[in-house]
Each structure stands twice: as structure tokens, then as C-alpha cells.
Design brief:
The protein has 298 residues and is α/β, with parallel strands linked by helices. The chain is built from nine helices and twelve strands.
Length: 298
């Protein structure tokens, strides 16, 4: 089996049709069918099942495709890293919308500054963070778990061959405008918040309570606004006296006009670092994680 065989299988799965995949790959349909049969015979599995509406991926096929995508991702990373004589320094992080992740990333760039580099930090949806780490698009991911979502999240991590370690345990806070009438309170309750707009991060196709970035997402709110980026969320918090629920770790230099207030609930957020089980952490990843610890310990 070759990398090209893996590309064939992945394309067929994406297109849901042998003929469409053959057109996309610029090969004949019989040739593609034979290639798929060769792989199935080599590994003694049935990757695809034919139906009246086309083909679907079998249960064995889903597992095979998971490994195939990982292999191709690693191959692409090797190409990017070594096929250029003047290779760039590469590193990527995917995380929920935490300012301490940005702070640590700034330190990381200062440490690994060079003539050429390709670094990325992606504040994105919870499932996308897990997917990025599983497919080696990011070496490090940062998300939270608690008693409510823990079983679902940890099951998802295990299925995607992802390891995790606790970064820190945080008492939930609300982030809101310094001009919010609640800003002078020592702490707030859920009842205090009922008349204020609740701001949360959109989770795309996985917009369930379990993959929400905000703790207590399952509790009904009267006023809901969903956004995709941190700047928009904080602008709405300032303009509308809205609030979101997060870890309480806030950088005032990055988020001026915003205050964190303890939320009086019997719950905690466990912020975790996720990494791929089969990949040894690079020195860059270790430095980034050490930088995270520095900012959350303040």
C-alpha cells in the first residue's frame, strides 16, 4: 500500500461515490475500484458498503480512515518541513478563547524568533480543537472539562487517540464590562444574571451543551447571543452589559474594559492540555506549555 492508495480511500469517503472520486482523482472508475479492492484484500477489511444511494463507510472503514488521515497529515508535515532548502520553523496551537493562551504564544514567538517561521494559534470550536490535535494540525490543544461534560469529552479524546493533562482548576467567573451594575459586587449569582445578555461562542455542527466552551451552558438563559471571536464577545459585553462565563484568568492589557467577577456556583472548570498519544512533544511544545503554566499561576 502507498500514500496514493490512502488518498484514493479518503477521496472516495469524502465524495460518497466511486465515479465522483474517480473524476476528482483523474483516473478511471474501474481502476479506482480495483485499487480500493486491493487495499481491502491486503488488510482483510471492508472499507465501503454499497447502497442504493451510493456507498457508505463501514465501521472498520471509519477506523481505517482515521489512521489514513493521520498518516497523510504526517506526510504533509514532513514535506513542509524538509522539501524546502530554507525550511521554516513550524508550530501550531488550537485552543478555546483564553487570553493566557495568547500570552504564552507571544512568549513562544519571542523565544523561537528566526528569519523564517510559520506559527499559528487558532481560537476555535471545541470539537475543531480536538480534531486539529487528532489530525496533527496542532501539536497542542487547550480546552476545559468539568463533571457535566467530562465523560463525553474524555470518550471523544480516547477515540481520537489523544492524551490529556490538567493545566489548572478554576472557579468560574463572569467576564463583563467594568461599567456593568454588577461590577462592584464581590461575587454574582445566576439569579443576578437573569436580565443580562448571555454571550457564548458558536460551536458549529457540534453546538451541544457538552462541547460548549462555557460552563453551565445547559442552564436556560433568557437572552442569548452567540459569537465566533473574543473581540466581538467583549465588544458586546461592553456595549450591552452582556456577560460570558470563563476561567477568571484575564489579561487587562489584552481585554481593557472587561472585569472578572467570581460566580457563586458549586462547580469548577478543569483546564486541560491535549496532545496526540503517538507523537513525542517537541521542545517548542514543551516551552509553550511551560509558558502557559507561568500565566495561570499569577
Amino acid at each position: 500500500m502507498t500514500l496514493q492508495h490512502l488518498k484514493y480511500v479518503i477521496t472516495v469517503a469524502e465524495e460518497g461515490s466511486i465515479s465522483k472520486a474517480a473524476n476528482k482523482l483523474f483516473i478511471s472508475q474501474p481502476s479506482l475500484t480495483n485499487q480500493i479492492h486491493e487495499i481491502e484484500n491486503e488488510y482483510n477489511i471492508k472499507i465501503f458498503t454499497r447502497t442504493n444511494k451510493g456507498i457508505i463507510v463501514s465501521q472498520d472503514g471509519e477506523v481505517f480512515l482515521g489512521y489514513a488521515r493521520q498518516v497523510l497529515e504526517q506526510s504533509n508535515m514532513l514535506d513542509e518541513r524538509y522539501k524546502s532548502n530554507a525550511s521554516k520553523v513550524l508550530f501550531s496551537v488550537s485552543c478555546q478563547h483564553y487570553s493566557f493562551c495568547v500570552n504564552a504564544f507571544v512568549d513562544f514567538i519571542k523565544k523561537y524568533d528566526s528569519e523564517k517561521y510559520d506559527f499559528s494559534i487558532k481560537e476555535t470550536e471545541t470539537y475543531k480543537i480536538i480534531d486539529d490535535v487528532a489530525k496533527l494540525k496542532s501539536e497542542v490543544g487547550v480546552i476545559y472539562i468539568n463533571d457535566y461534560n467530562k465523560n463525553i469529552i474524555l470518550k471523544t479524546l480516547d477515540e481520537r487517540n489523544i492524551d490529556y493533562k490538567l493545566l489548572f482548576r478554576a472557579k468560574p467567573h463572569i467576564f463583563t464590562s467594568v461599567d456593568n451594575p454588577l461590577a462592584k459586587k464581590e461575587y454574582v449569582t445566576l439569579d443576578d444574571l437573569k436580565d443580562y445578555p448571555y454571550l457564548s461562542f458558536e460551536q458549529g455542527d457540534n453546538n451541544s451543551f457538552y462541547f460548549s466552551e462555557e460552563i453551565l451552558s445547559y442552564i436556560k438563559k433568557n437572552k442569548n447571543i452567540r459569537v465566533r471571536d473574543r473581540a466581538t464577545l467583549f465588544n458586546l459585553a461592553i456595549g450591552l452589559n452582556g456577560y460570558t462565563i470563563s476561567s477568571g484568568v484575564l489579561d487587562q492589557n489584552l481585554n481593557s474594559g472587561i472585569i472578572g467577577i467570581p460566580l457563586n456556583v458549586d462547580d469548577y472548570m478543569n483546564i486541560i492540555i491535549i496532545t496526540h498519544k503517538n507523537i513525542l512533544l517537541s521542545d517548542m511544545a514543551k516551552y509553550y506549555i511551560d509558558s502557559l503554566k507561568k500565566y495561570i499561576s499569577r
